[in-house]
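Final report, closing paragraph on structural work. Over the funding period we assembled a curated collection of sequence-structure pairs, and we close with a single example.
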Amino acid sequence: MAVIDSFFKSLNQQGGSDLHLASGQQPIMRIHGDLARVKYKEFTHDELKTILFEILDDEQKKEFNETGDLDFGYELEGVARYRGNYFMQKYGIAAVFREIPSKILTVEELGLPPVCQELAMLEKGMVVVTGPTGSGKSTTLAAIIDYANKNRKDHILTVEDPVEFVHSSRSCVVNHREVGAHTKSFSKALRAALREDPDIILVGEMRDLETISLAMEAAATGHLVFGTLHTQSATKTVDRIINVFPAEEQAQVRTTLSEALKAVVAQALLKRVDKPGRVAALEIMISTSAVANLIREGKTFQLPSAIQTGRQIGMRSLDDALMELLQKKMIAPEEAYKKAIEKAKFKNFLKEPPSVFES
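Its predicted structure, as stored:
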């Protein structure tokens, strides 16, 4: 057993999400959103490098030694998978690991709205799940893919960096591809995917123009494509996709996106007050004809109004989701206020006036 495995087991037992290891510091774990130091000695660079290199293969060691950075996946059997990032900093080597639970929670277990199951059953189009780093995008997507895996008879192809949740083939055939290990890039994998007879394609991150363009092309040619972005609302997601293209192409891109996009799920993760843990608040925009017209005409500033009028078909704003959690006494008013778009709606719930930086 690798030395680092004991830290992973401790993180898992305490319900933590992240493990931070850095030269010159004690180990640190993120538990329910807060960082906590572990009672352990401070690592020297050489000690930590020995521990971290124990779980790497020769190619990974070579990449880190040459670049000073490394992204990879690691699995501790019977515990969980981990997304690891190694980097060099002022005092030596450092690493951060994100725990990927071995058990994939269902849509119901996560408390996601029923419309998420409907997204899993779409015939074609693009669904984008967005939010800041650590907001639970991968967990939400895993639940949606799991529902498709159990209820469809199709080919699901995932392209990730690294592979996070591992889906066993159920009613569907599932193939996982990892950037670096199985393919050179997201864009190369997406080009190849169109020759691999997929029905559903999961793109771990739509990080550049080429990947976004290929994802839209796949969605427009009859595939169901799921992808992630690091935007914080449905409106910003649409703007981000369009603005990544050169100005002279944006009019055509708006038209293509209006036809390909089926939904945007933007989420934030908040600390619970009713019990230990965190809960997701989801903004959901479904591409109705009205939404598609706004995207096509470049009137994305009107999308929040379209979301409000689409409640009966499952749409909801982030503020509405936050208010629902607040009224159920699952989150504190301060948490809701921090994440809210229209903060004035939540100001009266605060015990103290917000700071000038939060107003």
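The first helix runs from residue 5 to 13. The chain has two domains: 5-101, 107-316. We thank the funder for supporting this effort.
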